[in-house]
Amino acid sequence: MATTDRLLEAAEDAFAEHGYDAARLEDIAKAAGIRRSSLLYHYGSKHALFCAVVRHVFEDLEQALAHSLSFEEDFPDQVERVLDAFFDFVRRRPGVARLILREILDDKGPGQALLLEGGVPLFEMVERFVEDKGRDFTPPGLSVRAALLQIVSATFVKASSGSLQATLWNGEDHQRELARSLFLRRTG
Fold this sequence. Notes:
Layout: H1 3-22, H2 25-32, H3 36-42, H4 46-69, H5 75-92, H6 94-105, H7 111-133, H8 144-160, H9 164-169, H10 174-183
Helix pairs in contact: 1-2, 1-4, 1-6, 4-5, 4-7, 5-6, 5-10, 6-8, 8-10
């Protein structure tokens, strides 16, 4: 694995676990198998590394979602494919959920601007897809944005809940059922 990939992975884990302020460059460098000076050679500052991590997360998520939307299928199959892509992404990288939730709650760090830059366009891409292709399936008057926010936020909370996950969710996939009930009810 390339040094930059190891750094991004170690930094993603550290920022998710400790937040921007508490994450230490020394610990990130050690987890990546390099020295702090080498980390700073690749990313000149903690801020630059954090920005690279968040952008990398959204680039990876964009690839997964864009791929899921590239298939010519009927709307219900495409919704299932998008849900699979999103849930699989969060399941494979649960630290991303913690990282994003931390940045939503922390209004003093650089993360909120990065969420607006990288996350909102992805959110709007899925919103447009549902509004354009799902007219015959979504209930009249449904706020697609509000529905997506419920699904995404519930998914992030579940992924961040650690040992509480089994107790709170009873091993069930409530987010998928919510999405199906909101987006796959034929209206015509």
